[in-house]
Write a structure and sequence with these properties.
By secondary structure, the protein is of the alpha/beta class. It contains ten helices and twelve strands. The relative contact order is 0.09.
Length: 302
């Protein structure tokens, strides 16, 4: 993979000289900028792997560039080498305090530059690998492996935060618990592979019918839950009825047979500033029980 080094110097021959040096590292693309403002825009669009930055520039000093650069979420961890002909220690301190990772004095020694650049490029590569590994760990810790929905623990964490927000700002929040009807019969008659297909189909329907601001999770087994963000029980009920209609139309194949599925839904909402997560879920669960007892394939609201 080609690594990108942004070289920022208002004097083009200086920038091209540094570009020639870093090319010796191999598999490196040097991008030269004489205008630090343009460099800042480009780096915000696509973060480089390393920046070589001149300290003295008329349009924007190296320190000013660094201050803006570090405020960018995309660029805040990109390593920067400050390059200057200044001998004063104050310049070194200013560069490091502003966010530079390393420092080079002009005239630049090519061997020293390559060594420092190589070290920081390797550090950046390990940093990106660690970030990717952390993302994967977070996904595994918060996601249900079968359906790709939020797992029970993470869903309840999200819901608890939203309920507190609902109470604090007096905005509506509704919760639905959705349970596949006669799921044990499906597993017994067609096998667990078909049962898994049913659960994945239900998950897909929920994701397709809900907004991006709503939160969907699998609580366990054939039971799912939805957090309707900033939505009253009345409006959430309309969505639940639409979801039930969509589930009735769904088809899951078991060999040459089509398995038809339905679901039951219990719906509740945050009522008072004293409402808790457990209270809201309990009302939704009781409403789900009524839906099951009343014949299934329906939604009951608390």
């Amino acid at each position: 993979m080609t690594r990108r080094i942004a070289i920022i110097d208002d004097v083009l021959p200086n920038a091209l000289l540094l570009k020639g040096y870093v090319k010796r590292l191999g598999d490196v693309e040097g991008l030269t900028f004489t205008d630090p403002r343009e460099a800042l825009l480009r780096c915000n669009e696509t973060a480089p792997d390393l920046v070589l930055l001149d300290y003295h520039m008329p349009l924007m000093s190296g320190a000013e560039f660094l201050e803006a650069f570090r405020k960018s979420e995309r660029c805040k961890d990109v390593p920067v080498i400050m390059v200057t002909g200044e001998e004063k220690k104050d310049v070194l301190y200013d560069s490091l305090f502003t966010g530079a990772n390393d420092f080079l004095r002009k005239p630049v020694d090519s061997i020293e530059l390559m060594a420092r650049a190589r070290n920081l490029l390797e550090l950046r590569a390990r940093q990106l690998e660690l970030a990717k590994a952390n993302e994967q760990l977070y996904y595994l810790a918060t996601t249900d492996s079968l359906t790709g929905l939020k797992n029970r623990r993470h869903f309840l964490e999200c819901l608890a935060v939203e309920i507190e927000r609902s109470k604090r700002y007096s905005i509506p929040c509704s919760v639905a618990i959705i349970d596949a009807d006669r799921f044990k019969v499906i597993n017994d008659n067609y096998g667990h592979d078909v049962g898994d297909q049913v659960l994945r189909e239900l998950s897909k329907i929920l994701l397709n019918e809900l907004r991006s601001v709503d939160v969907v999770g699998r609580l366990g087994g054939e039971e799912f839950a939805v957090q309707f963000t900033e939505t009253s029980k009345h409006n959430a009920l309309e969505v639940c009825e639409r979801i039930l209609s969509r589930i009735r139309l769904a088809k899951v194949l078991a060999g040459l047979q089509e398995v038809r599925i339905t679901a039951s839904i219990g719906l509740s909402e945050v009522r008072t500033p004293r409402d808790s997560l457990d209270a809201v879920l309990k009302r939704a669960d009781e409403a789900l029980f009524r839906a099951k007892r009343s014949g299934r394939d329906r939604c009951e609201a608390a």
